[in-house]
Write a structure and sequence with these properties.
- The chain is α+β, with helices and mostly antiparallel strands and about 375 residues long.
- Helix content is about 25%, strand content about 25%.
- The strands form four sheets. Strands 2-1-6-7-8-9-10 form a seven-stranded antiparallel sheet.
- The radius of gyration is 23 Å and the shape is globular.
Length: about 375
């Protein structure tokens, strides 16, 4: 699991912003927010333009570094506009079955690395400084990777500089290593790879009405199964949307989803923004054959009534007890010890600091405190 994360000089975060998932306060309520001593469910509040979306992008930047995904590439300014540093620095600390792993790197942009380092059990496994052309691969034997053809890797860097045939001028060594060495299934790098591949960011939105229908053909095909369709129907009902669903195959071969009434009502043309947001959430996560390791739900409740937002939180806590889930919200109704706890509720400030509620007041917060009332009255105002 991810234990600590830090980034600086990235988008609106000029100074370092960090999250320590191991920094728990020992509360004996809402214990389902903690898994194996680490925060597994977190809710972040922040005023508009404080960087909640950017924090999610930063947390999952490792996905594009390790696997060259195009998740957020070329989505605007990468470095902080007020910083004089020429690279953004990312640091990820993981713990897999008691074994610590730290992966750090610096980027000039979303395509180009300045340097990268890997530490396992406090030992430097490799250190690549692409800017200076200096490399240290002395401890690859520690991870049973001594057979890696380092000359071939360094040659690929030179070829990339000369021909510009690869999209990223400096191929991350960790990406190359995982792709070119046959590690054992219990290798810590395989565990890291499996974790990072299952990290996902989901942002709220109701643009589904305007997306090409072909984007959903595969999902509709999967719904052409009574059990799967009933599961989607049950999901809506558990969220407070009472409905019955019918899937029909049209003469042109396409499938169409309907609400079942005396007359069939087309789902996409009549569903509310909240219902569409729930549908998209279900489509992207629930039926998947894989279990997510990390989910960043950005303003997940933007289209939900507060009771539905609570239902969604309860559903995810029950559905994914081991998954680390970070949610962002403006909904103060969710700031309650019934759902969360003071060491799992955070405030993101305009200056780019992230503070747990238990550290944002001189009071000793207890289960009986009305956190929402305290927030609205300005108890935590200096941390906003």
């Amino acid at each position: 699991m991810l234990k600590k994360f830090a980034v600086r000089n990235y988008k609106n975060f000029k100074e370092e912003i960090s999250i320590d998932f191991s920094n728990t306060a020992g509360y004996q309520f809402s214990t389902d927010c903690i898994y194996e001593g680490l925060i597994s469910k977190m809710l972040i509040y922040g005023r508009n333009a404080t960087g909640k979306t950017n924090l999610g992008k930063a947390l999952t930047d490792i996905c594009s570094t390790m696997f060259q995904t195009s998740r957020f590439m070329n989505d605007g300014v990468f470095l902080n506009a007020d910083s004089r540093e020429d690279a953004a620095v990312f640091s990820y600390e993981f713990n897999f079955d008691g074994q610590p792993l730290i992966y750090q790197y610096a980027r000039y942009s979303d395509l180009e690395l300045q340097w990268e380092k890997l530490f396992i059990d406090n030992k430097t496994i490799f250190d690549c400084n692409f800017a200076l052309g200096k490399f240290n691969f002395d401890n690859l034997k520690y991870i049973d990777a001594e057979t890696a053809n380092i000359d071939r890797y360094t040659q690929s860097l030179e070829e990339g500089e000369e021909t510009e045939e690869i999209s990223e001028p400096k191929l991350p060594f960790l990406r190359w290593l995982i792709s070119n060495v046959a590690f054992k299934n219990d290798s810590i790098l395989i565990k890291l790879s499996n974790y990072v591949r299952r990290m996902v960011v989901i942002s709220a939105g109701n643009a589904m009405r305007f997306r090409p229908r072909r984007m959903y053909d595969g999902f509709f095909e999967s719904l052409d199964n009574d059990e799967r369709l009933k599961d989607l129907e049950d999901f809506f009902n558990s969220m407070g949307i009472e409905c019955r669903l019918i899937l029909k195959k049209l003469p042109d071969g396409q499938r169409e989803l309907y609400f079942s009434h005396e007359k069939l009502v087309p789902f996409f043309e009549t569903a509310s923004s909240g219902t569409l947001a729930l549908f998209d959430l279900y489509r992207r996560l629930i039926p998947s054959a894989w279990d997510p390791s990390f989910i960043y739900l950005d303003e997940f409740d933007a289209f939900y009534h507060y009771e539905m937002a609570e239902n969604v939180m309860k559903f995810f806590k029950k559905k994914y007890p081991k998954c680390q889930i970070i949610m962002t919200s403006h909904n103060t109704n969710l700031m309650t010890n019934r759902l969360m706890r003071p060491d799992c509720l955070f405030i993101l400030s305009r200056s780019g600091t992230l503070t747990a509620l238990c550290n944002a007041t001189e009071r000793e917060l207890r289960e009986g405190h009305n956190l929402e009332k305290m927030y609205i009255s300005g108890e935590f105002e200096q941390y906003e």
